[in-house]
Amino acid sequence: MPIWSVLVPLVSALLLGLSQSLGTSVGVLTVFGVALMLSVLAAVHHAEVVAHKVGEPLGTLVLALAVTVIEVALIVSIMLAGGAKAAAVPRDTVYAAIMIICTGVLGLCVLIGAARHRVQTFRVAGANAGLSALMALATLSLVLPTFTTTTGEGTYSNAQLVFAGVASLILWLVFIFVQTVRHRDYFLPEADANNEHVHAEPPRTWHAWASVGLLLVALVAVVGLAKLLSPSIERAVSDAGLPKAVIGVVIALLVLMPETVAAVRAAHANRLQTSMNLAIGSALASIGLTIPAVAVVSVWLGLPLQLGIVGKDLILLLLTFGTAILTLAQGRTTVMQGAVHLVIFGAFLFLTLVP
Q: The Sodium/calcium exchanger membrane region domain covers which part of the protein (predicted)?
């Protein structure tokens, strides 16, 4: 195990623990930023060690689930601290996560993989199962609240919110069962469907468990440091006169960095199936865990919750899913498909800055 991969999570966690006493000077914030970036690299390293030990598709599930659980904790903490002012935080975070993953991460993986290997393949059955679940979850959570009439536009009643939360959790759990048990072969690389350990000897058990622990420490450091840096980001956005939605996008980008780096590295190594598992699985977990959690908090504590998206955001979401359907239809990807996804991602970022 490389020494840097041990030291970085521990030092970053120490910085996080000492953050209250270190202050918020420019130098300290710069150190936090460097620690954040290094923690991302450490998280990816340990996730890959665990993934190699347990094999696909469980390996990609480790990083996606770990990041999402901590992301949910971050969203709930913001809701509890912000009250009514944070009513749109879950919506903005989930929407940004879907757009970043389905256009930015997926597009970058396809483009880099195709540029290096010309044409890459993946299993259509697994990718389509994930995409169909993602479309259903996004519609229940982000689209229908705009059109329901029991409460104001963009909101759910308590009964509707409970239904959406339970449905989201059930659908996500069914997908995990399909991915890891019933149809596990749909999510294995075609060349390695019968043996996912063909490339190298798996790490020893103690090594894998050490990586699990260090992965969790690194992810806590990533999310914690991102949260510490968010007030500075908020001030910078405010001073620049940019929309508040930019803050959610920036924080989502920071939190999703470990998954992004891992997915891109897999595509570069001609393992696009791993990239697909990680990208689609992360998007599903982002909704399947976030919506039930915020539903419980909202109903239990009576906090307002704004879920529905409108206007350009709704159009971009529909465009993203339509493009993803075409990209995943053949099980083969080229540079063209990657470019289309990245153009949509560019439009998402630009229209967030200039609504």
A: 25-180, 211-353
